[in-house]
C-alpha cells in the first residue's frame, strides 16, 4: 500500500520469527496499535500466533523492525509505480518479485544477482511451473487473460501467449541436483535414453565424460556427475525453452568450460535459453544479454532492464545501475593488476609475502584407495595466498588434507617452521554432522568471539555480507547446504591461525558472498602474516585472491602431481592452455573474460601462446 507516493512493503521472515520466545515486542511498540485508531500489526492465531503486518495501515515507522529480537521484520518504501510491475508474492508479508527477465529467441539470457532476490522464482514462472499472481495474495489468483493484459505490448506477452497455448515445450535444469536421486532410480544410460528426444544424449554425455559412469546407478553419482547428467538430459529434450539454474555447481574448471559450450550451442533459431550463474567468467562466456536482480534478499527482488553481457556484469561489479539509477553497494569490486614482471618476486612468490616460512613439505607420495598423489618440495610463506587449480579427482583435496594432518604420506613429510603451528581447515564437503550440535552463534563464537562484535571488520565481512546475522539463532543441524557452507567458511576464516586451508570456499555462494570471502582471505593473510591455500574452480575468484597458483595435473581418479607454485600470470597461462581457452582482462574492471572460441582475440592470443592476457 502507498504512503504518499511510496509503495509500502512489509515482509516477515517466518523461519526467524519465534513468538514463543518473545513478548510480541513488535505489536507492543506499534504507534498505530497504541493510538487505538486501528491495527497495523497483530498476532494471527491461525498461524500459531505469528504476527501479520497490514500494509495499508502501517505508517512505515520501522519501530517493529528495531524491536524484533530475531531481526525477522523488514519494512521498505519503494517507488509507487513498481506496484504496476509486481509479478508474484508468496503470501501476506512474503517475498515479492517485481518484473521478469525477457527471453529472447536464439539468444542466451543470463540472470545475475544475490541469493534470495528471486532468480529461481523468475525461472519457475517462465518455465510455466509457477503461475504469477501479480502480487495479489487475497481475492483469488488472476486468470491468464489478466496476466497477459499486464504484459500487453511487451515481448513477455508474446512469450506467455505461446506458453499458455502449449506452443512452447520447456526443459528445466533445477538448482539442487542433490534432490535427483530421491526422485529418479536406475542406471545413467537408461535415464539418459529415456530423456533423449533428439537422439543426441549419448553423444553429449561422451563429450562431458559421462560415458565412464553409464552403467552406474544414479544414487551412486557424485554431485558433479549428477550435474552433468541433468545438463545432458535437458539438452537432449526436443524443447523450445531451455532453462539452467546454476549449472556450474560441483563442476571443475574444465567441466565448466565444456558445459558452457554446450549451453551456448542450444541458442539456435526458435529456441529460448536462460541461465542463472554465479561464476561470472562462465556467465560472461555463455550469455548474450543479462538481467540483474537486486533488492533485499528474502524480502523483495527487482529485475533490471536487459544489458549487454559485458555492460551488465561491469555495472554489477561497479555497484551502480545507471538505467535504474540504483546503487547496489557503496564501493565497486575491482581486480588487482599482476605485479610487473621486471620486479623480482617476493621470497614466497606472492606480492605481499614475507620472508617468514610457515609450513613446508618434502617430496610427498600419498596413497589413497588406488589413487596416488605426488609432489615436489615446497613451502607456504606469511602474507601470501596460493590458489590451487585442477580437475576433479586429481588430488587437490588429498593435498590439502595432507597439509592439514588428516592424511599421512607414504613418503616425505609436512613440517612446520613456526612453533605451535595453528591450522584452520575448511573441508570441501560440509555436513551437519561435521559441525557441533549448536546454534550458529555458538559455532561462530567458539571460532572467534570478535566475529560477533558489532562494527568489527570480521563481523562486517563474514557475518553481515554473508547474511549470517539472520541465522544466529538457528541450530546448525537445521541449515541447508548453502547455509552450512557459509557458516563453515566464516568459522574457518575467523579463527586465529598461521595457515588457512580452504577447499572450495565459493561453492554455493553468490557473487557478492564470493568476493566478500576472497576479500576477507586477503585481509586475514596480510594482517596476520598468515598463509592461505585456496582450492577454487571459479576463475574470477582464483584470479582475485591468488598471489601464486599451484596446478595439480595427472589422470583423475588414478594419479595426480602437485606442481610448484607459479606467479599468477604464468600459472593462469598454463592452466588456460590446458583447458584450451583464452582469457583477457576487462579494461574497465580488471576482471578476467573468456574469449569466444574462434573470435579474433582468441585466435590472436592462441597464435602468441598468450592464453592469459593482461
UniProtKB/TrEMBL annotation:
Superkingdom field: Archaea
UniProt keyword Signal, yes or no: no
Q: What are the GO MF terms of this UniProt record?
A: ATP binding; ATP hydrolysis activity; oxidoreductase activity
Q: PROSITE patterns annotated for this entry?
A: 4FE4S_FER_1, 4FE4S_FER_2, ABC_TRANSPORTER_1, ABC_TRANSPORTER_2
Coiled-coil zones: none
Q: Which residue numbers delimit the ABC transporter domain?
A: 73-319, 354-579
Q: Does the keyword Kinase apply?
A: no
- Ranges where the 4Fe-4S ferredoxin-type domain occurs: 49-78
Keywords per UniProt: ATP-binding, Nucleotide-binding
Question: Cross-referenced Pfam families, in alphabetical order?
Answer: ABC_tran (PF00005), Fer4 (PF00037), Fer4_RLI (PF04068)
Q: Which SMART domains match?
A: AAA
Report the protein name in the record: ABCE1 homolog
Organism encoding this protein: Aeropyrum pernix (strain ATCC 700893 / DSM 11879 / JCM 9820 / NBRC 100138 / K1)
Amino acid at each position: 500500500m502507498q504512503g504518499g507516493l511510496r509503495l509500502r512493503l512489509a515482509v516477515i521472515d517466518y523461519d526467524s520469527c519465534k513468538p514463543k520466545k518473545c513478548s510480541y515486542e513488535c505489536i507492543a511498540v506499534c504507534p498505530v496499535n497504541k493510538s487505538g485508531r486501528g491495527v497495523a500489526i497483530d498476532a494471527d492465531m491461525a498461524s500459531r500466533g505469528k504476527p501479520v503486518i497490514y500494509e495499508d495501515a502501517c505508517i512505515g515507522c520501522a519501530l517493529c523492525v528495531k524491536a524484533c529480537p530475531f531481526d525477522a521484520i523488514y519494512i521498505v518504501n519503494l517507488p509507487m509505480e513498481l506496484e504496476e510491475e509486481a509479478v508474484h508474492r508468496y503470501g501476506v508479508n512474503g517475498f515479492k518479485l517485481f518484473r521478469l527477465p525477457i527471453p529472447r529467441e536464439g539468444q542466451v539470457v543470463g540472470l545475475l544477482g544475490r541469493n534470495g532476490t528471486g532468480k529461481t522464482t523468475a525461472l519457475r514462472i517462465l518455465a510455466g511451473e509457477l503461475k504469477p499472481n501479480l502480487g495479489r495474495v487475497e481475492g483469488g489468483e488472476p486468470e491468464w487473460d489478466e496476466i497477459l493484459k499486464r504484459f500487453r505490448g511487451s515481448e513477455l506477452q508474446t512469450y506467455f501467449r505461446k506458453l499458455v497455448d502449449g506452443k512452447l515445450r520447456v526443459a528445466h535444469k533445477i538448482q539442487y541436483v542433490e534432490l535427483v536421486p530421491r526422485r529418479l532410480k536406475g542406471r545413467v544410460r537408461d535415464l539418459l535414453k529415456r530423456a533423449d528426444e533428439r537422439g543426441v544424449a549419448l553423444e553429449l554425455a561422451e563429450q562431458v565424460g559421462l560415458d565412464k559412469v553409464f552403467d552406474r546407478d544414479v544414487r551412486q553419482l557424485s554431485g558433479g556427475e549428477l550435474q552433468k547428467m541433468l545438463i545432458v538430459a535437458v539438452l537432449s529434450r526436443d524443447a523450445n525453452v531451455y532453462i539452467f539454474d546454476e549449472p556450474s555447481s560441483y563442476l571443475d574448471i574444465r567441466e565448466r568450460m565444456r558445459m558452457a559450450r554446450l549451453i551456448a550451442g542450444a541458442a539456435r533459431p526458435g529456441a529460448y535459453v536462460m541461465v542463472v550463474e554465479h561464476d561470472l567468467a562462465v556467465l560472461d562466456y555463455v550469455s548474450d544479454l543479462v538481467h540483474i536482480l537486486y533488492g533485499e534478499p528474502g524480502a523483495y527482488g527487482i529485475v533490471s532492464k536487459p544489458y549487454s553481457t559485458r555492460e551488465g556484469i561491469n555495472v554489477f561489479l561497479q555497484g551502480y545501475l545507471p538505467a535504474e539509477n540504483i546503487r547496489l553497494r557503496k564501493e565497486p569490486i575491482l581486480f588487482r593488476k599482476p605485479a610487473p614482471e621486471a620486479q623480482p618476486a617476493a621470497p614466497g612468490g606472492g606480492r605481499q609475502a614475507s620472508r617468514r616460512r610457515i609450513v613446508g613439505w618434502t617430496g610427498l607420495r600419498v596413497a589413497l584407495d588406488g589413487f596416488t598423489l605426488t609432489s615436489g618440495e615446497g613451502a607456504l610463506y606469511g602474507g601470501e595466498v596460493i590458489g590451487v587449480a585442477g580437475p576433479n579427482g586429481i588430488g587437490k583435496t588429498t593435498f590439502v588434507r595432507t597439509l592439514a594432518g588428516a592424511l599421512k604420506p607414504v613418503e616425505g613429510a609436512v613440517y612446520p617452521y613456526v612453533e605451535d603451528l595453528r591450522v584452520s581447515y575448511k573441508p570441501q564437503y560440509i555436513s551437519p554432522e561435521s559441525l557441533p550440535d549448536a546454534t550458529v552463534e555458538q559455532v561462530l563464537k567458539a571460532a572467534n568471539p570478535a566475529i560477533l562484535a558489532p562494527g568489527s571488520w570480521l563481523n562486517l565481512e563474514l557475518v553481515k555480507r554473508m547474511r549470517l546475522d539472520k541465522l544466529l539463532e538457528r541450530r546448525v543441524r537445521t541449515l541447508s547446504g548453502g547455509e552450512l557452507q557459509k557458516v563453515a567458511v566464516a568459522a574457518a576464516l575467523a579463527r586465529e591461525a598461521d595457515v588457512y586451508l580452504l577447499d572450495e570456499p565459493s561453492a554455493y555462494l553468490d557473487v557478492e558472498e564470493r568476493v566478500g570471502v576472497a576479500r576477507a582471505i586477503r585481509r586475514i593473510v596480510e594482517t596476520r602474516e598468515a598463509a592461505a591455500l585456496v582450492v577454487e574452480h571459479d576463475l574470477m575468484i582464483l584470479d582475485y585472491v591468488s598471489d601464486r597458483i599451484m596446478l595439480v595435473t595427472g589422470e583423475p581418479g588414478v594419479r595426480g602431481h602437485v606442481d610448484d607454485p607459479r606467479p599468477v600470470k604464468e600459472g593462469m597461462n598454463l592452466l588456460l592452455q590446458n583447458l584450451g581457452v583464452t582469457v583477457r582482462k576487462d579494461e574497465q574492471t580488471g576482471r578476467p573474460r573468456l574469449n569466444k572460441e574462434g573470435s579474433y582475440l582468441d585466435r590472436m592470443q592462441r597464435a602468441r601462446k598468450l592464453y592469459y592476457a593482461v
